[in-house]
Design a protein that fits this description.
Rossmann fold, 13% strand, alpha/beta, single chain, 5-stranded parallel sheet, 4-stranded parallel sheet, 359 residues, 11 strands
Length: 359
């Protein structure tokens, strides 16, 4: 992937590009600088981030290791700008920042910022960049994080931007933690290559499923099932990505028929926060729930995933089964986001070196 500079392209040209075409603009000196779309992560980058996350996880188990990690970025500051509600993603990033020593500031509601006085979101974030070395942002508008990255790259004080969820289209760091969870789950049975994954639920509006489906194109021999009511099926843009990558997939409406054949089930909730007239309540989703009875037909080494929060789509009686890894996903998010932040600041080698010398 050839690197290109965001300060050398007009917004008009950049905004007209596909995510794949934009991806090279988010790199700097061979490493990730902005983390904005799932398409920017190649297989080697994914493998490096996963191995680095494991190093961080191992180092953090000791007091000495934790002190080492916290000394990496003690002189840097991060802004967590969350203009959209979040529990796990916010806490995960906050914990990741603490793990690597970043001092954090946050704005978790635009009503507490000068936006209520009429300030534009762009000016608000330009203000943040005056005080911080990293901006982690979650916003309801799709593509907004990319616009901010372009804007800041064309100022006198550019800072890296991490997209913590934008609109209905992208949630790249959730996809990273999902990949890391799959890698850890399948590390003794050949990894992600050759596995079959079922996405279930609201796939049309679920940015987590969309982002992960895109990353699965980086692996060999993967097959995907999209299991949802017709109104909530995956978008044609994701299917076009899979077609271009020659990844086989099936569009399905019968959940129980798929369960025995898959290695991973990725459950999602109904995304009714995007409703205009409460249209989601008219859709029967009861056939797309994972119940305790389904455990008997699930492969013994398969995994059940969920980005959370959940509603009724996974019975709480399933939680005690070792194949239910959604709570592991939550913790994995802290490790992979710590790795991503360290990578952005070019500290990969120092952390790997400590891991090799001390563990």
């Amino acid at each position: 992937m050839n690197e290109k500079a965001l300060n050398q392209v007009s917004w008009e040209k950049f905004s007209g590009m596909t995510p794949d075409e934009r991806a090279p603009y988010f790199m700097e000196h061979g490493r990730t600088y902005h983390a904005l779309v799932s398409q920017q992560f190649s297989r080697p980058i994914l493998e490096d981030l996963c191995s680095l996350a494991t190093c961080v996880r191992r180092i953090a188990k000791t007091r000495e290791g934790s002190s080492f990690l916290q000394s990496r970025l003690f002189d840097k500051r991060a802004m967590l700008y969350f203009a959209q509600p979040s529990t796990r993603t916010y806490l995960s990033f906050d914990s990741a920042c603490q793990t690597v020593g970043l001092d954090c500031m946050d704005v978790r509601d635009s009503s507490t910022s000068s936006e209520v006085k009429g300030e534009s979101p762009e000016d608000t974030i330009r203000t943040f960049s005056s005080y911080t070395d990293l901006i982690i942002m979650r916003h309801p508008a799709g593509g907004f994080a990319e616009r901010i990255a372009w804007m800041l790259s064309n100022t006198s004080r550019p800072v890296p931007v991490i997209n913590a969820g934008s609109g209905k289209d992208q949630h790249p760091t959730q996809a990273l933690l999902d990949i890391y969870t799959l890698e850890r789950s399948f590390e003794n049975i050949g990894g992600i290559d050759g596995k079959t994954v079922a996405f279930v639920g609201d796939l049309n509006r679920g940015r987590t499923a969309r982002s992960l489906a895109g990353l699965l194109t980086k692996y060999d021999g993967v097959k995907i099932y999209f299991v949802a009511p017709p109104e909530l099926q995956i978008g044609v843009d994701i299917l076009a990505q899979l077609d271009a990558a020659k990844v086989p997939y099936e569009i399905c409406h019968e959940f129980e028929q798929v369960i025995p054949d898959v290695d991973a089930i990725y459950m999602t909730r109904i995304q009714d926060e995007w409703d205009v007239d409460n249209e989601s309540r008219l859709i029967d989703t009861s056939k797309f729930y994972f119940t305790k009875d389904h455990l008997s037909i699930l492969k013994k080494d398969a995994v059940i995933m969920h980005p959370l929060p959940r509603r009724k789509e996974i019975d709480v009686a399933v939680d005690g089964d070792p194949r239910a890894v959604y709570w592991r996903q939550v913790r994995n998010g802290m490790w992979i986001r710590s790795a991503l932040i360290l990578s952005i600041f070019g500290l990969d080698d120092k952390v790997r070196g400590y891991c090799e010398e001390n563990l």
